[in-house]
Design a protein that fits this description.
The chain is of the alpha/beta class and about 260 residues long. The protein has helices spanning about 50-60, 90-95, 95-100, 115-125, 135-145, 150-155, 180-195, 210-220, 235-240; strands at about 5-15, 15-25, 30-35, 35-45, 70-75, 80-85, 160-165, 170-175, 200-205, 225, 245-250, 255-260. A 6-stranded mixed beta sheet has the order 8-7-9-10-11-12, with helices on both faces.
Amino acid sequence: MDQLRKQSVMRWDQGATRITHLNLIGEEPLSIRIQGKPYSVVMRTPGEELAHVAGFCLAEGIIDTQADYTAMAFCDGDDTNVVTVTLSATRRSQITQILDRRGFISQTSCGLCGKELVSDLIQKIMPLPDGCVLDHNRVFEQLEALRDIQPLRKKTRAAHAAAIYDDRYNLLAVAEDVGRHNAVDKAIGKVFLEANLDAVAFMVMSSRISYELVQKASRARIPILVAISRPTALAVELASHLNMTLACLSEGDGLYIFCGQERLN
């Protein structure tokens, strides 16, 4: 599967028209199967499928550690659009509700108000501990530099990105995808598969911060999220309950910090 596709397009420019060629970002379905049964289908940019599935499963509560699964692989070596995850017997017995798609909030959120959503989520996710104080300027620099590590965006102008750093501002993982949730899953999945989540200090993102992204980050125990665009009100409410720090780019050269201000100085 290709991440890029050349497309002929008519360009209008000050009254004149001509045919030109553009790179379009790829988008394909990825079927995620748990214990051989279909669990979810997500539309994503092809590539980094195993990291994507690892991050997705971590966010959904299907796995917590690498010991929770015995295999994660393509169903067919030539078909990268289907990945199956085989869980350990112990893990299967622990998450029967999730496997039945009854217990996970993102699958059953219709009809819930914001307060009910936050109340349900904070019962499933432990608040993060205090600590991990970072420098405003260094975090801002990484947010500003995000465009420099987005090759797909440079070619297509259509990719979201997520980048994960440690407390020394070293890049641990970066991922791009047509979907912002997918980019976050892929980046988290890369760090998870390297058994390096304990080293994570913060994540920067090209998108706004929604409550689902707060949820994904909290499952990976990432204390600080910084984005180009502002968070939603529900994202701030959830992050406050989970003792997380949310910030975004402000007008000029600065950051808006919505909660967890003590982690940035």
